[in-house]
Amino acid sequence: MGFKRSLKRRIVIAFSTIALVVSGAFALSIVYVVGWVEAHLVSEESAAELNDILRRNANTWYALGLGHRTHFYTSHPKGPSIPANLTNAQDGFTEVVDGDEAFHVFQKTINDQRYLLVKDQHDFERREQALYDGVLIGFIFSVFAASVLGWLLARQVIAPVSRLAKQVGHGDQLLPSAPPLAPNYADDEVGQLAAAFDTTLSQLRHTLDRERYFTSDVSHELRTPLMIIASSCELLMEANSLNINQRQQLERIYKATAEIHELVETFLLLARGNSQKGDTAERVSLESVAESAIQRFSAVAEAKGLKLRMVLESNDNGRYNTSFLSVVMANLLRNAMHYTDTGEIRLVLAKGSFRVEDSGIGISLEQRQEVFNPFFRTDPARGEGLGLGLSIVRRVCEHQGWAVSLRPLVPRGSCFVIDLQ
To answer: 249, 337, 368, 396: least surrounded by Cβ within 10 Å?
Structure first.
């Protein structure tokens, strides 16, 4: 599983890693060189000194003036005997550590006789340890200094990238009057990135403008024919020659015309991106909109053999945009009836929210992630529909600051919840 790190952190890690590798290699090379120099120089010095001793008469070995830190031992009966802790020493140079004591031992075998020159190196080992401690401190300091330097440089390197990210993320960049970003940056990789953002944002602005113009134009052009249809229905309904069936059909046409006009106004508001602060539309209660929706869809539900009813769990005193609330409620009820073959559909009202419950085919866990996407249909083979209803519901909720959620019902069915708070 991958993990994400900020660019600043990655730069600091890169600096620290380089310092760790370089300083570590340098420290290890110092340790190796010190050990190599110690072995070769001491070995050559000890070999020369031991050869000088062996050139003397064996009777004078006990009277050698070697100093209190240098000792001579041999297996020859005329010389000082070899201590027990050195009986296993090998020919050549070896370093022996015995507790707090450290010795450099050089052994030479001649005619089956062993000759050892032993030098007390306690002070040398102490200085050597001090050197190693200094190397360790330098190594730690190098890594720390590289991390601090990396952090300081990362701030300088990331500063223009962070500034560019803030500018791109600002909502004003989608406005037609937004200035280009590239002129504010040097002609480097960041400047190229800013130029790429300018191109992409320009294309996005054109796309949004086309969408707004199309929606506005369509909404504007539909108003006139809708008004003609509505006024014609009103005139026809005033005629006394209509029978009951004809009058009912005219009323259905008139109601459908009103619904289309309501949708046109809703889409026009969404296209304009008006905020709630500038919303001057009529505001009504949740219950009144629900009663209208039940009355509107009762005939459709009855024709399909479904039971449609409204349940009032608790009173709500809020006032809501009638167009937006009607569109959301109508699309949820229409969606429920589309995917329900038997049983009932309930419109449940609560304080600050409402929900639509059905006993339909339900929505799988995988489909719940996509059900609010445009043109997505749970069952493409089921009747008509473009898969836009739930997408419109989500857009309206986002516009109004409402929340929409979906949960399954047991044993089957779906429940869409709209939180109006």
So the answer is: 249
